[in-house]
Amino acid sequence: MSSPGLFTAVRLGTARRASGGNNIDFTAVDFETTALHPGRIIEIGAVRINGDGSTLAELSTLVNPGKGVNPGATWVHRITREQLDNAPSIGDVLGDLLELCRDSVLVAHNLPFEEKFLAHELQRHGIRLRGIPGLCTLAASRTTLRLPNYKLGTVVHALGLDAV
Fold this sequence. Notes:
35% of the residues lie in helices and 24% in strands. It is an alpha/beta fold.
């Protein structure tokens, strides 16, 4: 269902050189979904950050996947069908998400997973995008760090970052 090639992998050094240093923007995205595959996005979290570390914009919303669609693994994401009933549809928020991501590098922990769901929703709405630059923190951490596992929490702790 996903359109292969939605994201184009980039290396941080290459992106910075091409943009002239810290002028590059990154948009970190995370989706909660109804299932692993096939499934629908039921929550979007996205933050656009400049290369200097300043937060430029944020988007955080539940997404109503449609009447009768089960929210899936509520024990994982803690989102109930009742919470989704009054949430906007993906069609209502897709434009805001795409605008937030425009001309930035998308960043996600396990980017191929996020790509699959975004590509599916774009396809459902007749939107075709290709070659969006993307950076997978899961892949990057596996190639640069020696850790017992590469869960996001483990990577954040190993790097001494604050979890938000």
